[in-house]
User: Fold this.
Amino acid sequence: MENPSTSKVVLLACGSFNPITNMHLRMFELARDHLEDTGQYSVIKGIISPVGDAYKKKGLIEASHRVEMARLATESSEWITVDSWESQQSDWVETAKVMRHHYEELLAREHNRDNVDTVKYTKKRRIEENYIASSVHHRKRDGPQLMLLCGADVLESFGIPNLWKQEDVAEIVGRYGLVCITRSGGDPHKFINQSDELWKYRKNIHIVHEWVMNDISATHVRRALRRGRSVRYLLPESVIHYIQEHGLYSAESEQKNADVVLAPFQKYSDASTSG
Amino acid sequence: MASCRVPLVLLACGSFNPITNQHMRLFELARDHMHSTGRYEVVGGIVSPVSDGYGKQGLVPAKHRISMAKLALQSSNWVTVDEWESQQPDWTETVVTMRYHYGRILKEYEQSAERHSDASGNFASPSSPFPQLKLLCGADFLSSFKIPGLWLDDHVEELVERFGLVCVSRGSLQPERAVHESDTLFRHRRNVFLVREWVRNETSATEIRRALRRDLSVKYLIPDSVMEYIRQHKLYTEDSERRNEGTALRPLIKQAHQPIKSLDD
Assistant:
């Protein structure tokens, strides 16, 4: 971290977090280890940004619960935080726009260190220290970099028609950057190679290999909860208590948004028929 | 739970070097599965770390492995740590460990039955069945039975006939094949319970130690309390990984026919 040539990085993870699992949290740890190991980066903060209810994904429960569970899950982390901005927007927000929002926040904070999100004081101070520690050696005035943290499935979803706008993909990987956690089985390098768009920005795409297979999907967790099976050790105890207390994830909640088209498909297929 | 269900205790033997979330998951999966048979009520789980005499490379002292397992299981209301096996001066065969625990469980059962009969002025109620003890193990364990000279035939027989196995697999057909290929296991197949784990999670203790040696994060793979304990006691370094290096496993010395420990990595 004392290396004067390291760039500060903030990692942003977008997703449903329905509910957050240990695997989501592991992705942050893996990404930080990987980026810092290159000697070029120091990761100063992680942001979890749960999607808004307007995303209309099947079984997506209220954002207030998903944000609260993510907050509980990150209580024991010194650097991972939760931001509710995206979840509070009435419409679904494209990931590129979410990145723009957070990048502007980061730049603003560079000028006046005014923390706007709801982070506990100790964590806030720790993150502030990270900023300062890395900026002491930062004579050149380049702000922190924001990178999107995702699984290999997101990278591969760039190829699904009508899910992403191509200019958004270019903005995410071209202007910001991507940290992609891959599990054995997938081959993200091949995927990048086969896409001219991604190939152009390959230097902004960081592939992290996950050696310890840890494939806890939120879908699996919800299924186990519906069936009254144990989910202990798959997600933090505090989140399990919260789910029990509020009676979340039942057969009914899984029917939410059934037969509703996912917001991005609605948005882009409308655009393509009208344009 | 209906009282006609058989009270069942699950025993896991292994290095627990260190205990991981995955070890604790095995217990949860096994309990759910045994409950879903409708015939058992899981009344307890026991983590039994192997003794230092096992001679496995990188095995840190039992007192640390015990402490870590206790910290990890603080939040569990049904799985506990037992030190008996770890305190034996020599490595103990799994079947011998099972005999010890079953004797202990039976004694407790008889005492509670006596208390029951004292109170009612009658013999223990015949509606409450005898408790059972089964070995909880991972998928590769069953395959170890067919390695020539590794197991004593009568130990395999006793393990599956008298006690029983609950084996958690990670989606391969390995356990089914092992039962199919062994006449002993096949004969007692009704006492071998195969549990399917749908979440791929291969957090082995070996990977945890490797990450710790390399100063990589293991957060969310093992409990925070265990992470903190490892940090405080500076366990799992390149030096600790060289413990017992070049030493033959105790089972292979003690007797040419010994079982591989379950839940081992």
About this structure: The beta strands of chain B are 6-14, 40-49, 79-81, 132-138, 165-169, 192-196.
